HpcH/HpaI aldolase/citrate lyase domain-containing protein (Fusarium globosum), 205 residues
Amino acid sequence: MLTKSSNLSIDSVIYDLEDSVATESKELARGLVADHIAADAMQRSVRGPKEIFKRLKQKMLKSVDNLDTIVVPKVQSTADLHFVADVIRHVAPQRVLFRPPMTESSQQTEEAPRSRLIHVIGLIESALGLANVLSICHAGQRLGLVGLGFAAEDFMANVGLSKLPDRREVLFARSAVVNACRAYNLPSIIDMVSVDVAHGTSLEE
């Protein structure tokens, strides 16, 4: 599957090493993905994805040279972003953390070669993460944060919400994430994933 992903004619590929990998297989999966990316297979492929994402938890790849974006699940405070940014600076000092336009020192990002930029997307999945979403976006401007994603299913489990047909139970949370990103000029907002694939109406909204 990793080899196949190098030649897919798609915009982006995401290596999800959290929910998509069984606990007993995580170490093996991390090693396989790290070796695959370090081998520069994506960069050699003409037909391959334009962007390479990795979703991580607990451990970082030893090398982020060929990554475009790191997706950080369960962001609950600015400390989570500081940790990721510190590791990136340690393992890849040649890379430049993304900074959104119109922020202090954003000119550094705008003038940096695009191949050296690295982006961070944080996932809001809990009540604590939502409560801290404004401070997360504010601090994230200097920590590579390009945007947030709202993980509705995990958020509902954390808060104890019941799923309604029109999904109004998460309307407040979705609105709060959008507002925070817009307030701090973060360009990317990823709305909740629709798991109701059996009914096309939910995907048409």
